[in-house]
Amino acid sequence: MAVKINENYLLMKSNYIFSEINQRVDRYQNENPDADIIRMGIGDVTRPLPRAVVEKFKEAVDEMSKNDSFRGYGPEQGYDFLIDEIIKHDYEPRGIKLSNDEVFISDGAKCDTGNIQEIFGLENTVAVTDPVYPVYVDSNVMAGRTGPMGDDGRYQNLVYIPCTEDNEFVPELPESSVDLIYLCYPNNPTGTALNKEQLAVWVDYAIENNSIILFDAAYEAYIREENIPHSIYEIRGAREVAIEFRSFSKNAGFTGTRCAYTVVPKELKGFDEEGRPHSLNNLWNRRQTTKFNGVSYPIQVAASAVFSPEGQEEIQESVEYYMKNASIIRESLDNLGLKIYGGVNSPYIWIKTPGEMDSWQFFDLLLNEAHVVGTPGVGFGPSGEGYLRLTAFNTLENTKEAMERMSKLSI
Ligand code: MLT
Fold first, then answer.
1. Do 291 and 319 share a structural domain?
2. 142 lines ligand 1 (CB under 6 A)
3. I need a labelling partner for 126 at 20 to 30 A (CA). Which of 178, 222, 318, 396 fits?
4. CA torsion, ordered 354, 250, 164, 168, to nearest 10 deg
5. Is the pLDDT of residue 20 over 90?
6. Does the beta carbon of 111 lie inside 6 Å of ligand 1?
7. Are 272 and 116 in contact (CB under 8 A)?
């Protein structure tokens, strides 16, 4: 008898969108070795770690080299020295009270948003905004919750909530009741944000329908406008219905260093077949203690330095730097007559493709004619067709150069 595979994997598109883009760009670069390509596709930061972070990082590595300060396994949930800082700086100033055992340190919001579905039954109905960060969809496909993809590019058992120009990228409540709802705000990929009233609509829905919201706040550091919630727990009742994911990747440059955290309030409950309630915090803790051995000590020390006054100043500087790029992109593309969204509370700019071009055609045009790489909107879901995403995560020089090149295109 031969080994059988998890056939759910066959239901997915063969490539993760960013691998697909890399392959195409590498192919183009091989064929055109002189092309100076500017990558504004994947949302990967380009500025180095803050100095305050690096200093502490080095000190902690040093501690690991000495008998009396060496550390082996740490707590799977993360060290209290980091959790204390997170609660004190990210939540208390917003009037949100959390206990240490409601915060779980991890090696990334991608991993946590991908893994969280494991604690929920396969029979739950899952809703995603469309376009969407592909991890939420693919992790549910792998688990067997979505069924196959139909001809319309939608998984049959997944509820898609379109976010397009028509509804100004504000997701409307689903017509049928759903159990798990993924929301990411400020949004990847559209770069748009929800204000408190708009998010409260979803929290109220979840309370009424016994749903759970999986809220990805990885981009909260980019919020510039008032009345945009940084945490879903700013909304009344959210502790009973929402899990929140946060990351050090986009604010402090940890995409290659890896540190994030997930908040699972104790009030959150799921139910067994007999209708008995169970704590989601307990289930997530059980999952993490079994499958995860914690983030390395030096990295957690490094992450805690993000909250020092110097760390805060430096990350603020980086965020401002990227947001300046965002405003340059917005202004330049606006001058070109393109319709653009996002880039105000987020490092992503969501561009309507010009004329009748589809997402991949616009991607090819930018790559071939301007040597600029974006992400085709359709890679984020069917409602992303006809859009393309650019990121502000680049140097100021490259951003200006990319805009200069795009201004010469005949579009
Ligand atoms: C993106 O480009 O959408 C991001 O890189 C996603 C991520 O952080 O994994």
1. no
2. no
3. 222
4. -110
5. no
6. no
7. no
